[in-house]
Amino acid sequence: MTIGIGLLGLGTVGAGVAAILASPEGRHPLVAELELRRVAVRDLSRPRPLQLAAELLSTSPEAVVDDPAVEIVVEVMGGLEPARSLILRAIAAGKPVVTANKAVIARFGEEIAAAAAAKGVYVLIEAAVGGGIPIIEPLKQSLGGNRIQRVSGIINGTTNYILSRMADEGAAYADVLADAQRLGYAEADPAADVQGGDAADKIAILAGLAYGGPVPRAGIATEGIDRLDARDVAYAAQLGFVVKLVATAERLGSGAPAPGEPISLDVRVHPTLLPKQHPLAGVHGVNNAILVEGDPVGQVMFYGPGAGAGPTASAVVADILNIAGIRQVGGSEAGLDPLLAASSWRQCELVDGSSSRHRNYVRLHTRDEAGVIGRIGSCFGAAGVSIQSIVQFEARDGEAEAEASSAEGSAEGSAGAKAEIVVITHEVQEDQFRQALAAIANLSDVTKVAACLRTL
Amino acid sequence: MTIGIGLLGLGTVGAGVAAILASPEGRHPLVAELELRRVAVRDLSRPRPLQLAAELLSTSPEAVVDDPAVEIVVEVMGGLEPARSLILRAIAAGKPVVTANKAVIARFGEEIAAAAAAKGVYVLIEAAVGGGIPIIEPLKQSLGGNRIQRVSGIINGTTNYILSRMADEGAAYADVLADAQRLGYAEADPAADVQGGDAADKIAILAGLAYGGPVPRAGIATEGIDRLDARDVAYAAQLGFVVKLVATAERLGSGAPAPGEPISLDVRVHPTLLPKQHPLAGVHGVNNAILVEGDPVGQVMFYGPGAGAGPTASAVVADILNIAGIRQVGGSEAGLDPLLAASSWRQCELVDGSSSRHRNYVRLHTRDEAGVIGRIGSCFGAAGVSIQSIVQFEARDGEAEAEASSAEGSAEGSAGAKAEIVVITHEVQEDQFRQALAAIANLSDVTKVAACLRTL
Fold first, then answer.
1. Which CATH architecture has domain B145-305?
2. Pairing state of beta strands B298-305 and A298-305?
3. Domain boundaries A137-305, corresponding CATH code
4. The domain at B3-124 falls in which architecture?
5. What CATH number should be reported for the domain whose range is A356-455?
6. What pairing do the DSSP bridges indicate for beta strands A428-429 and A357-366?
């Protein structure tokens, strides 16, 4: 019994999905039962690498959704609208949806989930996070016995590619970005990637599944790599760390919240120092990895290609197969599998991270005078922040010199501002660290807090 | 509506499962619907860390299976019998089974799967491979759109712990094994681990799922780490490799086989050199990782704790939740989800690896004479085997000297046998390599082929 598939979009991912459906041999036999019945495209006349019968193509995505021959709607057009409306239209027609659209799910996931639950249909999103890496299904179906403590990941391939090259070549951010754009690894408008918004979309989705309740996308503290200085990447390497854009969702507090009370999450995206032996530290280039920490499972990690036609199509087809597979269980009046449907079961509240505990990397511009390190150490000590290492690097080069004198003005006396000191703290509560840092910024020897990065 | 669970075995894993069921708060809400109704133990009087009502316990596993209040049977007793019979008994009673028993599944998986299919019940085995790592479910439910080329993994924690310490400390196998036994990382009888049998059980299971048909356990070429020389670990490190016990299942040939014809698999377990940047190379200590390579997904890897009460219990509970979840879809006459049931859909045949292609590491004892390297190189060249590196290490120490003279006897003239030469070949077909190696072993300069290891 074949199952009719309607595809919204025939770009990279859509063509990848069509290619899998067109050559089922050697794949799971259920693939052979999937039949591509309608495809919505923007331009009928555009030449395509994949031969599709002309009568399959339509410029009306609504017509594809509404076609009675289409039983599962696959949305791979991207963007917020009309994608959101089309997903809701499919749900309203009682048709399950598979989407790779992280932006829509991160922003309108609650609305879509509510509509899907009301109609009793599945909306599956494996391709929305981590490309071909199976991460959504395992979070839903393989880790439910755990209390999740933290989900952290490298979930943006473009920034990881840039950071990998900055680390390998000692190159500056802007230079690597320009080259990545030339090579097609970064888009012409790279903002969503390099400013962290794409990673924030994805961690919102992962956290929602890991913690069982929607996570407000707008509340996620987000910092990209676009202001990251190559020297921090280089110093981190000398101290045994790599710098990665890490997205994290962490539960604060422990124990069960009072009935009806939400659990508190700290969800954030920012450049982060990882010790070289950390499982995420070895993730290079455009690969992605997601680390899930739970009780009692401990640490499990999922690694693979975070983007690309083939990997993303693999994830889309996985979702289609799951819908096709579960259709064989019940009749038309069947209920939903609560794991596959991933209905939310508690409330999550985002809190500011001031009570979170972590290590920190700080780079200071100081005068090159005796006693500076002692005075910095004393400030940390007075605030109860213990230090793992404090290192004075060579006198800054011309670029930093110029930056120092222009940024701090003459009052600091840039002529004497020659030393660069990097401090790595032990694990400390964020607000306590901020207090110490404010005191250090006021020291007369310290001309600038040049960089401050969280450290796992 | 609660679901009755019957537990066969209350050892480390069984107690871990009971602990999760006893404290559902903060876990998926479906956990709260699972009720532990009967537990089979060997000895009622044994003190246990976990408090269970006395009336739950029974010394008769058959009584637990047969109890009408038990709806899902969880087998965590281990061993071949009575585990196999009890699993079949549960299936015959129409009860789904969750088992962590890789030995039973690797040997009797076909019999169990046939019985389960006939009765229309699920037998789920997430905990049988990779401890807490979700790998069985992703293979079944997230990668079905792919043609799998290779599954390779570090799937035995004991040997990985030993190899990690051999590499870090330069220690000998026997010394680390003794210490691992003292620390509880290796069993008093370590044979199943160190000789590779446990890894062979697990790769048989993974290959069966990845390729959609049962893999004959007895046909898996298996070599353990018990004859691995510490010097090969050390030389490998100097050449940029780590030595791991890798289990691999690889499809030979490509394209669809003729209808009714099996696909050809090369399935093996042996110590393997991995380049230091290989994704599996960074897996240390008792951790496990499984790398799946498919078209179009590329390489995805699953990493985490390969054993232990908590991780394994997490996997067992995941399976129980999946059965509980899918029960909500259909009534009593519901069909099986073909993905979750993982029914086999083609035949697999094991072939000898003579046509497989890979790199090789060879360590030779030779006379320390001019021209030896040239003559070795010529032998490889004559057989069409190209060489990546050929390195002469320092003259052997006393131990190797003694080994050389006792093993080769006086005919070789051990007095002149002083050099140790390590060759890494480029990728070459196995039978071609064997031919070259036979010619080299016959060279008068070569006193012994001291080690030969496959290299990825």
1. 2-Layer Sandwich (3.30)
2. antiparallel
3. 3.30.360.10
4. 3-Layer(aba) Sandwich (3.40)
5. 3.30.70.260
6. antiparallel
CB B140 within 8 A of CB B340: yes
Are the CB atoms for B70 and B4 separated by under 8 Å? yes
B456 within 8 A of B275, measured Cβ to Cβ: yes
Q: Does B138 touch chain A (CB under 8 A)?
A: yes
How do the domains of chain A map onto residue ranges?
3-124, 137-305, 356-455
Q: Does B340 touch chain A (CB under 8 A)?
A: yes
For A318, which of B145, B310, B321 is closest by C-beta distance?
Answer: B145
Tens place of pLDDT per residue across chain A (456 aa): 799 999 999 999 999 999 999 999 999 999 999 999 999 999 998 888 888 999 999 999 999 999 999 999 999 999 999 999 999 999 999 999 999 999 999 999 999 999 999 999 999 999 999 999 999 999 999 999 999 999 999 999 999 999 999 999 999 999 999 999 999 899 999 999 999 999 999 999 999 999 999 999 999 999 999 999 999 999 999 999 999 999 999 998 877 777 778 999 999 999 999 999 899 999 999 999 999 999 999 999 999 999 999 999 999 999 999 999 999 887 656 789 999 999 899 999 999 888 888 999 999 999 988 889 999 999 999 999 999 999 998 755 544 444 444 444 444 444 455 889 999 999 999 999 999 999 999 999 999 999 999 999
Bridge partners (DSSP) of residue A364 are: A421, A449
Decide if A262 touches B, using CB distance below 8 A. Answer: no
Please tell me if the domain spanning A3-124 has the same topology as the one spanning A356-455: no
Chain A residues inside the 8 Å CB shell of B296 = 16, 19-20, 132, 309-311, 313-314
Taking the Cβ of residue A56 and every Cβ of chain B, the question of whether any pair is shorter than 8 Å is answered with no
Pair B37, B70: CB distance under 8 Å: yes
Q: Is B448 a catalytic residue?
A: no
Chain A residues touching B28 at Cβ < 8 A? 144-145, 212, 339, 345
Residue in B272, B242, B311, B279 with CA at minimum distance from that of residue A279: B279
